[in-house]
Amino acid sequence: MHINLLSLILLSVLSIQLSSLKFLQLSDFHYDVEYNSNGIANQMCHENSSQAPSIPLGQFGDYLCDSPAKLIENAVAAAAKVIANPDVLLWTGDNVPHIEEYNEEYVKNALQFTTSTIQRYFKDVTVLPTLGNHDMTPSNQFGENDKVYEITVELWDKWLTVEEKKLYRYGGYYSRVINNEYFLILNTNLYYTYDKRNFTDPADPAGQFAYTEKILEQAQKNKVAAHIIAHIPPGLYERVPGTKWFTDASNKRFMDILTKYKDTIKLLVFGHHHGDTFHVIRDDKDNPINVAYISPAVTPWYSGLGFGANNPSFRIFDYDEKKAVLNDVLTYNVNLTALNQDQNTLWALEYSHKEAYGMSDLSAASYANLVDGFSKNETLFQKYMLYNTVSTDDSVPNGTIRTGQLCSLNHADYEKYEKCLKGSSALHYSSWFIVTLFVLILNF
């Protein structure tokens, strides 16, 4: 009897392991070829012949600057040590640094370096890449049939199929069926408020909404799961209240799609923020139906917005294929200061969503309850703030900033977010807020 019980336990454990898939996410490298240890920290760590640095900068980077080659190499190598053969590698864009002027050749060179680095460490892994808003020249200006799409198709020849390349050349998006589940790799930069390109159909840039619904209809008909992977998420930036990424019309349509296919879409993965956060997705009746995971960056860059930098990081999603649910979300990081002092400093697990927040499951309802806990439990909210900055700062914001954080976590829909803000007496727009938004537009 004891032997039979032990056998059942072992079979149960084996079944869980066999149904568990691991998705590795790498995001926001922002590779800066001009990073120089003799550079000026407040000038993106670029060398200035007329101004000497006060102290030498770290070989792996600086919190005021974007990533040197050594940091990117170190990050990808560390990810390969933690998980050598992920079932899928989700690469969510932004490879060009936060500089103002660059051309297509610059974009190509940056992407060539990051692409070759990933290929070297993950030779036989399925990689699903997409572009970030900086991976275009001028930055943010994505259109239809852009030359940068052709450049990346050539670089990603090994990763994309013939059919995927055809679609990608037009709008920078595509889809893939893996293990009988649909992966939609979207170009949400098309919806960015700062994208001023003209489209054949302004209501549906590059026909991506129609394509998304077409694929989701197929997944729904086949009764299988679908996942959406992109760079810019819907909703608002948690650190600066009122900051929208998508145009109003695009955000509404995106939210409508998420609601319409709420039983089919199982995973939403994004980057762009550099910080570590999430958005609870709600339907028209305000019921939580999904969670948009917004993963932290490899670049440690301090944006100049007054909210600090972050330690370099990457993320692993532990997904139960059989149940079509997440088992856990694991974030790994390295302390940049320690890495600069000792190049042998190891990357380590920063936290597990389940363990850190004491969650029994990772359902949308559980995340809604978690956000409610943030508003009531200062210690819990402080823990979130520490992870939001990738373990660089655990200070808890007050007033407008605090309200913005909580409303962003709870509402990706613009109207609901605005109601959340108006419901707080802490919201007071000021000249400081306007200036901050102006800086955000220039830098993000």
From TrEMBL:
- Boundaries of each Sphingomyelin phosphodiesterase C-terminal domain copy? 287-424
Query: Which one of the record's GO molecular function terms can you name?
Result: phosphoric diester hydrolase activity
Q: Name one GO cellular component term.
A: extracellular space
Its localization reads:
Secreted
Q: What is this protein called?
A: Metallophos domain-containing protein
Upper lineage is: Eukaryota, Metazoa, Ecdysozoa, Nematoda, Chromadorea
Q: Which organism is it from?
A: Bursaphelenchus okinawaensis
Q: Which residues form the Calcineurin-like phosphoesterase domain?
A: 21-275
Keyword flag Metal-binding = yes
